[in-house]
Fold each of these.
Amino acid sequence: MFRLFCAAICLLLALPAQALAQEDAPTPAALELAAIVAGQQQLQNVLNATAINLEKGLQPIVKRELAAHLVDDPMIIRIVAKNIKNRLISAMAGEYADFQTRSAHIYMKHFSDQEIHDMIAFYHTPTGKKLSEVTPTLTAESIAMGQEWAKNALQGRFDEILQQELSGFVK
């Protein structure tokens, strides 16, 4: 089962790569913009989010696989899942050039060549450099604020809505 899971991950990762290989190569300007905007910090953000999701998803799979070998030690399960996660993240980090190429394709999809050059010029200004530097912080703070806002907005409403929805089915 675990091998099937790994094969599915590899297949899912390979399909977009094949689609990108069939597309035109990104322009040098699009690659430059990707290097500025989707730089190492953006890749690190993607890797961090992926690591969190992998860690949650791997433990039940590892537990099931180890149980087939009569191993049910929670510490071993955590260690094996963490090792697998770390190795997968390390493999992804080695694919930075592909990450930039894919980012460049996204910019080319939404912006003309002139607009890409304009953005590059902007990112070379003091304001553009500052925006590039603080974007990861802005993103992290915005996500945290959004989660806090959603929590506050939903607080107390869930139970009320759940009871209303169940009232038609439960006596």
Note: Confidence is low (pLDDT under 50) at residues 18-22.
Amino acid sequence: MNVRSEMHNIDSKSNRRDYLSAGKTNPPLIYFFFFLIYISMDGIWTYVLYTKRLFAYRIHFFMISVLILKALNLLCETEESDESVENLKALLEVEQQQLLYNGKEMRNAEKLSGLGVNDRDLVMIVSHAASSR
């Protein structure tokens, strides 16, 4: 048996597959826009240092590295840590089960960051068995 599972939304405007969570399509575009702004600032700063190289110190070159690192951070930004418990349940395809974190039930309206959930933390799925009478 060969089974393939795929989870995606359909973009209503372009009818294309969208693999991001619902409502999370715009942040990558915003991050890329700010990446371009930081890269252009880096280019301007490099030009200023080149034209005024007699007055440039090490700290000025350090500032270029800060701009480059910030631009790369924005380019690589992929994770949103403020997901809701409801989105997590949809991702895990659990509806009737409870999610527990540190022994406490996670309610749908709560945010993962508000509960203190971090990367590689354990979230338990508790299934309620139907009682047979």
Note: The first helix runs from residue 26 to 51.
